Backbone:
């Protein structure tokens, strides 16, 4: 479990607080979406999860290890993997295998173990066919998956992803989301920053951040059922929910707490039968 | 995007050699190329070209590697052809310059030496993964650890430099395209506008580099990087073909030195 207790953070001593008393518990194997307007502190928050940033006040505890303690930080970084927004700023190797090996090399594993982890990570990220390829020749989606594989090679219990589908085409987005879903089913905890509400609706829990504070926290249905509160901070609802709200406004008898496409279709079928 | 000299997976005797053997061989070969007499350099060059072709390195690839250096090579050739002592055999009256036969010959030899060095470098980089080359460099620098030289950090720096070079080139192309999209035409613009555009390009690239360096440092830290000893995935094991190569190289060097002193 990851526990953030009353975390405050500011980038400059005299600057404004980027995080203001954030308290959050993330369970093992949980799939959590972190949403909120630009500049609300999402990236700052996930960078606290693997001790890249340390709280100015409050504590972050990862599986019983305090991120403030320098001795715990190496272990914490192998427990919580971090996938950055731009894979070009994360990938350090010239070839796919070299990059994936970077983490295990830092863990000072023997050569055979590194090779084993590289092969496993390629397999888990669904990119075995990219082994040996030069990074420069990969597409944006493939680079994103290489970045994920690089993190998987550390065998983390949690992965924090900063907008993993940003700038990807629909096919690449689906591929990345499928891999994230597969990792979640394998028991890896996922903390997923997104601006895409349909992606957030697919997770188990949605945390909304606003001005450095937790604004809302609940299941996708609970969160997207609070349309007014979300609109107040400039957030949109998933398109299916928006459609059902429009139907409701036309005095049609539909539920509006639906975030899932199949459930929405069912509602519309029932409605059509009634009409 | 394809770049000359970038490692391409393959299978051959040279591919399978230990990177330390390849690096040491290329190092000594480079010294010999710079030191040897013209006939010997010519023969080394021909052999290198054949070895490159036998390892699926196309002439086009060698051409790509030479292309950015053409101006420099041409300048060296011209300097030798024009300024070497000897009887003039061609004179350009209006420019009042003359080429001597010995100068042209010397220019050819120096150019040939450069070509040989480039082919040797391409041969090394295209048949060895960067991690292998870095592991070999780390191996040879290892004694410096006793002098507290941060060998592991140097290896990581080389890896990052190799990785970021194409990224920066892409960034430069993007900024140039953005400049063109906003109406800048380098051919039609005056000197001052060209200087302004160049300064803008340089500043944008520099800012991009610093931003990237910050982010990359964080990403490396997130993957457990610290200034400490690291292990490597690159396999470094001397096999019978490595010993054979070392023996051939040793014999070659002995013969070369013997011939050099016999003929001089």
Residues:
């Amino acid at each position: 479990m990851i526990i953030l207790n009353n975390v405050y953070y500011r980038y400059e001593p005299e600057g404004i607080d980027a995080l203001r008393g954030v308290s959050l518990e993330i369970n093992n194997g949980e799939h959590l979406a972190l949403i909120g307007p630009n500049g609300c502190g999402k990236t700052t928050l996930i960078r606290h999860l693997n001790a890249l940033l340390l709280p100015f006040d409050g504590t972050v505890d990862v599986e019983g290890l305090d991120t403030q303690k320098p001795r715990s930080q190496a272990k914490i970084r192998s427990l919580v993997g971090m996938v950055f927004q731009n894979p070009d700023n994360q990938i350090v190797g010239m070839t796919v295998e070299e990059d994936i090996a970077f983490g295990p090399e830092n863990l000072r594993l023997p050569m055979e173990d590194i090779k084993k982890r590289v092969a496993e990570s390629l397999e888990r990220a669904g990119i075995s066919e990219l082994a040996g390829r030069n990074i420069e020749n990969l597409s944006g989606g493939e680079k994103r998956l290489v970045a994920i594989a690089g993190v998987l090679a550390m065998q983390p219990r949690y992965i924090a992803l900063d907008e993993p589908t940003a700038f990807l085409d629909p096919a690449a987005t689906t591929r990345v989301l499928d891999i994230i879903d597969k990792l979640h089913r394998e028991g890896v905890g996922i903390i997923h920053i997104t601006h895409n509400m349909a992606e957030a609706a697919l997770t188990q829990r949605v945390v909304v951040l606003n001005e450095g504070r937790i604004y809302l926290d609940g299941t996708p249905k609970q969160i997207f059922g609070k349309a007014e509160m979300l609109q107040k901070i400039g957030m949109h609802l998933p398109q299916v929910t928006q459609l059902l709200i429009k139907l409701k406004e036309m005095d049609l008898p539909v539920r509006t707490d639906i975030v899932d496409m199949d459930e929405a279709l069912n509602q519309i079928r029932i409605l059509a039968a009634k009409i | 995007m394809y770049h000359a000299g970038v490692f391409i997976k393959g299978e051959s005797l040279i591919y399978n050699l230990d990177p330390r053997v390849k690096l040491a061989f290329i190092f000594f070969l480079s010294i010999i190329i710079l030191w040897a007499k013209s006939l010997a350099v010519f023969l080394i060059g021909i052999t290198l070209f054949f070895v490159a072709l036998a390892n699926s390195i196309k002439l086009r690839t060698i051409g790509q590697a030479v292309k950015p250096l053409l101006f420099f090579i041409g300048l060296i050739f011209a300097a030798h052809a024009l300024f070497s002592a000897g009887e003039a055999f061609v004179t350009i009256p209006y420019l009042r310059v003359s080429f001597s036969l010995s100068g042209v010959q010397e220019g050819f030899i120096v150019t040939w030496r450069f070509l040989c060095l480039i082919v040797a470098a391409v041969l090394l980089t295209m048949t060895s993964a960067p991690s292998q080359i870095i592991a070999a460099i780390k191996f040879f620098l290892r004694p410096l650890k006793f002098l507290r030289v941060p060998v592991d950090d140097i290896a990581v720096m080389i890896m990052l430099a190799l990785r970021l070079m194409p990224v920066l080139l892409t960034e430069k192309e993007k900024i140039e395209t953005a400049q063109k999209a906003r109406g800048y035409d380098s051919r039609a613009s005056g000197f001052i506008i060209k200087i302004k555009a160049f300064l803008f390009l340089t500043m944008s690239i520099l800012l991009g580099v610093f931003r990237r360096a910050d982010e990359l440092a964080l990403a490396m830290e997130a993957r457990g990087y610290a200034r400490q000893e690291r292990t490597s995935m690159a396999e470094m094991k001397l096999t019978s073909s490595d010993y054979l190569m070392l023996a051939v190289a040793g014999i070659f060097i002995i013969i070369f030195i013997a011939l050099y002193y016999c003929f001089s």
User: Anything to note?
Assistant: Chain B touches chain A at residues 1-3, 6-7, 9, 129-131, 159-160, 162-163, 166-167, 212, 215-216, 218-226, 228-235 (CB under 8 Å). Residues 165-225 of chain B form one domain. Strands of chain B lie at 88-92, 97-100.
